[in-house]
Amino acid sequence: MILVIGACGAPLVMRLYFIKGGKRIWLSCWLETVAWPINFIPLAISYFYRSKNKNNNTTKVILMTPRIFMATIGIGILQGFCNYSYAYGVAKLPVSTSGLLFAAQLAFTAFFAFIIVRMKFTSYSINAVFLLTIGAVVLALRSGGDQPEGESKKEYVLGFIMTLASAALTGLICPLVELIYKKAQQAITYTLVLEFQTVYCFVATVFSTIGMIINNDFQAIPREAKAFELGESRYYVVIVWSAIVLQFYFLGIIGVIYSASSLVSGILISLMVPVTEVLAVLLYGEKFSAEKGVSLALSLWGFASYFYGDYKEYKKRENNQSQETEMTDKTNCTP
């Protein structure tokens, strides 16, 4: 649910900033992870609970090892580059276009998951990845048809490229996180996942803060707030909620990887694309061209293919377990 809120809300709130007069890409990049201190709330609750139950070995406080800490810093730097690419794409493209393009992260996630964590694929998951990738290609064939007014062709194309770059980096980061979980020489707990989230978002925030200082974005915030179409006070409301919703997105991703796998996180992110598409058309009056319709249909087909295959695998495992239980019972009953 946290991932659903973040995946749908983040691009819509970020795009609202640019539609109503915001122009600072580094600021938008900074907002993607600056709300990392929010994680201290559940962390504090977790630490308190575990310290009260310190006599129970299963609930003792476990901090991340130096090895995981260094790996987390590396993930944070990659996330910084990913955040800037994504912010640039949102600034230059309509939400419906950038959303469909970002759905290509599933293909990148599948590719890197196969190489990095040796993810096993079924015919259904391969079909899903193929269809979602073709959907992004269809959209790319007619790029420029929804180019925002007042924006040059060069900026639009660069926004297109940067969005695909952010999709590729996301596809790389998710399997790397899964690899860290698998290679960690300690138990992966709820607390450790929150620590991981806090550290790598802090590192990504430092990365974007340096960009903001170089670009003089901090000094520009008061001026931009006064010129914001919705008013100065609502300017700050928009950027605060952008930070909060985006933190939900990142927490949702690492939570799903922890609970399932990097491929499942990619599937769920792409699953939110149709919802975001509809919301962008309804809220911002964006055009819904034939190419977007085809891309959306292919995406939905891909979702259905993956989840149907996952359902069949689940039923197969369930049947095998039932058969094993029956065989065990018969063996135990044999005199």
Automatic annotation (TrEMBL):
The chain crosses the membrane at residues 25-48, 68-87, 99-117, 124-144, 156-180, 192-214, 234-256, 263-284, 290-309. Keywords: Membrane, Transmembrane, Transmembrane helix, Transport. Pfam families: PUNUT. InterPro entries: EmrE-like, PUP_plant. It is found in: Membrane. The keyword Membrane applies. It comes from the Eukaryota. It is a multi-pass membrane protein. Belongs to the purine permeases (TC 2.A.7.14) family. This is Probable purine permease. The lineage of its organism: Eukaryota, Viridiplantae, Streptophyta, Embryophyta, Tracheophyta.
